Amino acid sequence: MVPMWTARGTGPVAPTVATPLRPVDHAAVRLSTTGWHGSWQERNRSATIPHVLDHLENGEAWTNLARLSGRSAAPFRGMVFTDSDVYKALEAVAWSCADQSDVAELSRAQALVELVAAAREDDGYVNSAVQARSDRGRWSDAQWGHELYCAGHLFQAAVAAARCGVLAELVTVGTDFADTAARELSGANEYLDGHPQVEMALVELYRVTGEQRYLELARRQLDLRGYGRLGPDRFGSQYFLDHVPPREAREATGHAVRQLYLLCGMVDVAVETGDAALLAAADRVWTDLFATKTYVTGAHGSRHRDEAIGDPYELPPDRAYAETCAAIASFQLNWRLLLATGERRFADEMEVALFNAIAVATSDTGTRFFYSNPLQVRSGHDGSNEDAPSGRLEWFTCACCPPNLARLVASLHDYLITTSATGAQIHHPFDGTAQLDLAGMPVTLELSTTYPAGGITRAAVSTGVTRDWELAVRVPAWCAATRVRVDGELLEVTPSEGYLRIVRSWHGTHELEIEFEMPVRCISAHHRVDAVRGCVALARGPVVYALEQTDVGEADIESPDIEDLELLSVGPPSADLHLPVTLAGPVRSARLYATEERAASDGTEIHASLVPYYSWGNRGPAAMRVWLPTAGSRHADHGRTP
Ligand SMILES: [Zn+2]
After folding, report:
1. In angstroms, rounded to a whole number, what is the distance separating the alpha carbons of residues 260 and 285?
2. What is the Å distance from ligand 1's center to 327 Cα?
3. Lowest pLDDT segment from 122-126, 450-454, 550-554
4. Mean pLDDT across the stretch 234-254?
5. Quick one: pLDDT at residue 638?
6. From the CA of 32, how far away is ligand 1's center (Å)?
7. Interval 299-353: pLDDT, tens
8. Cα-to-centroid distance, 195 and ligand 1 (Å)
9. CA of 119 to the centre of ligand 1 (A)
10. How close is the Cα of 12 to the center of ligand 1, in Å?
């Protein structure tokens, strides 16, 4: 292993080969706590990470590891992958404490690292579920054991520790285990983990250490997959993504998180090995996923039974499983594809997922979470089952999502901006600063924006070097009109491949102002999404809206009836993004099925305030719906993306 300090710098994804776009250093971007991204990251640091650590330290995740060093007498309990939740939390602390500022969190994390280190076997292998069983050895339960899945999360935590220069022992724990796995899972041992995840983790550990063995093990997992080794078991080979070799895959299918993590690993291996066919396969599956199997919120996976993506257009709003981890994995996948191709479509999908499917999963306190993220919760919903609760919960029996959120948000600033051979790219407007190095030329960007409440972003661009370079700003797919000013002067700039590109020397300090027009948009779904036929969803900018029972008084949100969209009143959004609307009142049969003609509106108006979907449920359980029924079919626009 190379000394950890040589690896310091970058964020979660750092290709070692030239890619069209390059990530910036983890310390290069600082978010202002007054902005949308920065306030969430601050809430994550001050509330979510401590909350996650509390649950891990006081629950089975701790005792499962502690029993291996004699610190606990409790038997193994819970999911076989409880170790992975500890690793995700450690990764969150590493990204969050890169500046060493939070001594308390670092010391809590250090205690967990010591716990993991003490649980290891002599050769560095660690998995509390496997070590708890005397009847089964290592690598003996490929279908359900999650052994490499857990290892992958350990490797990603080690990568974060190495790049942030914290938790040094975690780097050793990770690489020791990786060395053992690379040695044992070679030759005749064709163990294939049922839950893809380790592929991207091994590639990143290779990127940190230069150890070719890690990259080879990642590629080997891809090469072994697709031949039915894992068997159909309960849900079929698709569930494990073992039904077709990844290079031949054409459709997004199976368990949503497994599919998306697999795609991340495919992109990483493809980039590092120059495997164009593998990258093309990932793009093919991406196209299928985003054309027919993605919710308007950017979520994936409609089926509860096997946490699966589902058929094309099978996107019921009330039965949406839409697991938080799938949305996070989608965000991670789109970032990888953005770096690998430079294409805007991937940044667009990151934005939809972030502002909707991911943001909705955390409460405004930072301590309550959704695992499944439906687009409709009915009046009288039975929320007693934790896979479809009426509101956010503080923890879960299967606790994968909260620590996944913690690690993503701790590194959120790593996903906003890139550099390239031609200059710098702002993919996502944010409030904060960026210190960039453009081929040896230092550049400072000070960004201020009210995004997503408003469409204006200002950037003070400072550099002492006189050299022409391009500052590119993504124009979201939903945005039809833009205005660009530099030092107050209006410029005629036509977007090129989805980006406003301003080439000049930028010597000194100049103010760039970009304005996105941000009207309220009425979105309808493809006619094959039967569950929302005749419905519209409202969006403004990247934010999809929802109607909560709390905001309609005595009326019933189960039956709003927008008789004529032209007459629909939509007011300007308030500072907290609430959107006042007027809906026409309905007259409907109370019977489950009726043959009479549907009656016209009685003229009653419902005055309501739509809330950003990501903020619903923060005022207690209440019925909610994203899709609002309308009187007629309006499917002129089949676009899914808001
Ligand atoms: Zn999850």
Report:
1. 10
2. 9
3. 550-554
4. 97
5. 37
6. 28
7. 999 999 999 999 999 999 999 999 999 999 999 999 999 999 999 999 999 999 9
8. 13
9. 25
10. 19
- C-alpha 324 – ligand 1 centre gap (Å): 5
- Provide long-range contacts, Cβ within 8 A and 24+ apart, for 326-329: 326/256, 326/257, 326/260, 326/299, 326/300, 326/301, 327/298, 327/299, 327/300, 327/353, 327/357, 327/358, 327/361, 327/373, 328/358, 328/404, 328/405, 328/408, 329/256, 329/257, 329/260, 329/261, 329/264
| pTM (whole model) above 0.90 | yes
Query: What would the pLDDT profile of 597-637 be if each residue is shown by its tens digit?
Result: 555 556 677 788 899 999 999 999 889 999 998 865 444 44
Amino acid present at 576: D
E-strand spans in 464-516? 469-474, 482-486, 489-491, 499-504, 508-516
Strands 423-426 and 469-474: parallel
State in Å: Cα 257 to ligand 1 middle. 8
Question: What's the gap in Å between 323 CA and the centre of ligand 1?
Answer: 6
Q: What is the distance in A from the centroid of ligand 1 to the CA of 238? A: 19
In angstroms, the CA 13 to CA 84 distance is 19
For residue 459, which of 495, 420, 502, 497 has the smallest C-alpha distance?
A: 502
> CA-to-CA distance for 314 and 530, rounded, in angstroms?
8
**C-alpha to C-alpha distance for 382 and 374, rounded to whole angstroms:** 14
11-42 pLDDT per residue, tens: 999 999 999 999 999 999 999 999 999 999 99
Q: If we measure between CA atoms, which residue out of 457, 461, 462, 406 comes closest to residue 431?
A: 457
Separation of 196 CA from ligand 1 center, angstroms? 14
Cα–Cα distance for residue pair 430/355, rounded to 1 Å? 13
**Which residue did the predictor score with more confidence, 383 or 101?**
383
Tell the residue number behind the tokens 């979660």, with chain if given: 12
Q: Ligand 1 center to residue 260 CA distance, Å?
A: 12
Q: Ligand 1 centroid vs 234 CA: distance in angstroms? A: 20
**CA 82 – ligand 1 centroid, Å:** 12
Report the separation in Å between the CA atom of 399 and the middle of ligand 1, taken as the mean of its atom positions: 7
Residue 603 has a pLDDT of: 65
